[in-house]
Structure formats: structure tokens, C-alpha cells
Amino acid sequence: MPDEHQRRAPAKPKNIEEIDPQRDIRVRAVGTVISVDEESVTMDDGTGSVEIFMQEEDIEDIEENNKIRVLGRVLPTPDSFEIQAEIVHSLEEVDMETYNRVKKIVNTTE
């Protein structure tokens, strides 16, 4: 009997410059919103920027300079790639210095 619950690829933590649209399926990235449009936001993580498409109700609460974490699908484009957001978390209440220290520790133990 076929499995009714198909597993999705994990959202791999990536810096924007590390995302390879030919190999990466789902990614997790953290950055600062640098622009907001009706259907998308542009996020910069210090290594690069990417356009992130999301549901209208998710965009309503996002403003420029907000820090966010996005989990989503990588969509290749002719020149680069974009991300279709599946989950968007606000990191406005997170101490980014502590977050980055923990991230560094976790990445060295994986």
C-alpha cells in the first residue's frame, strides 16, 4: 500500500549566496527586509538578497527593516532564483547576537 503521507525535503539552513537553484529544493534563511511589495518582499542577509513571494496575509505584518526567518521552496529563474515562502517567522523580538552565536555552535556540531 503506498504511503499517503509523502515527506517533503527538509528546509536546509542557507545564506543567500550559498543557495544553488539547481540543487536546493527547500531552504531556511534569515535576513532583513529591504523592500515590501504587494506579493513579495526582498530580503538581504549580508551575503546577498532574494525576492520572496508569500501570501498576502503574511505580507500585511511585514515592514522594511524587519528581521525575518523564511522557510520556502527555491524557484529557479533565468537569471537567478526566488523563494516561494511556506513559513515566515518574525525575529523582531529575538536578540540577533545570541541567535547568531547559537547558530554558529549548532553549525559546528552538525
Secondary structure topology:
Blueprint: E1 12-13, E2 26-36, E3 40-44, E4 49-53, H1 56-59, E5 67-76, E6 81-90, H2 96-109
Parallel strand pairs: 1-2, 4-6
Antiparallel strand pairs: 2-3, 2-5, 3-4, 5-6
Describe this structure in words.
The chain has helices spanning 56-59, 96-109, and strands at 12-13, 26-36, 40-44, 49-53, 67-76, 81-90. The protein is of the alpha/beta class and 110 residues long. It has a single domain (12-109), classed as Nucleic acid-binding proteins (OB fold (Dihydrolipoamide Acetyltransferase, E2P), Beta Barrel), CATH 2.40.50. It is globular, with a radius of gyration of 15 Å. The protein starts with 11 loop residues before the first strand and ends with a helix.
What pattern of helices and strands is seen along the backbone? EEEEHEEH
Rg over alpha carbons = 15 Å
Query: Percent of residues in helical segments?
Result: 10-25%
Uncertain runs are none
Number of strands: 6
Question: In what order do the strands lie side by side in the largest sheet?
Answer: 2-3-4-6-5
Shape: globular
Question: Sheet bearing the most strands, described?
Answer: 5 strands, mixed, barrel
Question: Which fold name fills CATH's third level, the topology?
Answer: OB fold (Dihydrolipoamide Acetyltransferase, E2P)
Computed structural class: alpha/beta
Mean pLDDT: 90
The level 1 CATH classification is: Mainly Beta
CATH architecture: Beta Barrel
Instruction: Tell me the number of helical segments per DSSP (H or I, 4 or more residues long).
Output: 2
**What is the end-to-end distance?**
35 Å
Report the CATH superfamily: Nucleic acid-binding proteins
Strand-residue fraction? 35-45%
Total number of domains: 1
